[in-house]
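Re: that chain you flagged

S.,

Sorry for the slow reply, it's been a week of failed gels. I finally had a moment to sit down with the sequence you sent. For the record, here it is as I used it:
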Amino acid sequence: MNRFIKYLVLFVIIGVVIGELLLRVLHLTNDVPLRTIGKDNIQKYVPVQHGYWNRGGHQWQINKLGWAGRLPKQYHNLITIIGDSYIENFMNPDDCHQGVLLKELLPEHNFLEAGRSGVSFIEAMEIAKSIDSLNPVVHLLYMNSSDFTESIKSVKPMTDIAQLDLKTGKIVPGEMKFAFAKRVLYSCKFAYYLFNRFSQPKPTRNTGVPKRNLDFGKIEMELKQLFHFTSVNYDVGNKVLVFHPGTDNLIIELARDTGFKVIVLNSSKEKSWTFEYDPHWNCYGNERVASQVSKGLTVFFNGKKAIVEN
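Prediction finished late last night. Pasting the structure tokens below so you have them in one place:
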């Protein structure tokens, strides 16, 4: 019996080692970058990392500022691009990032991406404030409806992202949940593979139609308080909200009333912007988004000097 147990343990160890080697060589799991929280309570990534995505098809990179993607070669006439996983965009190569695509369409400007999975609207405003020292011409904030509900603690309490507590009128910074456990899980590719394979729900076909499980009219007062807080505590004049297709009209109108410039993306009557089993934009979707954003920026810049010389 003891001999059987010894062979069983040895067999398991050898299997884990072989599995780990195969997963690393063939890049059968996605690499996940490590996060950190700075003195400004902004949660970003540990600078200068890289890893593989989707069976080694391409690599993502974390630049020296702690954001995904390439840094601009220059910072004059800067436009920032802020958002969640759609801007972080690990699922596409760097050439399909908004910063690269917009640079091709608006070459007189430089673009800095600041994206991280889960970023809420209020957290995006904090990120914009943290990089105001770079004197950007404008901040682009890519948002959808959930980014606003997730910004309000009383509407959707979440501990891992920044939220506004309407009772106190203060922002509650996000916390890193299970940081050590995640570090161990991401370091062991075999364990991470088993976790994704057996613990996660099976993906369903993406239809491109956003889910609506919340009546925004019922939280109109909370949304108005959120936008009022924003108008009092931030400069909204240099912010453009880029709304995903399907964003609730109430949120768009409140943004306009608050003084934000608004670009509403339209994906109708086009081939799919998204991956078949994932709601994120594919390369084609990112190209169409950049095209619409560049046209919107041109309209905003029309009639005034678009280029600001530093």
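What I noticed first: Residues 1-30+178-205 form one domain.

Talk soon,
D.
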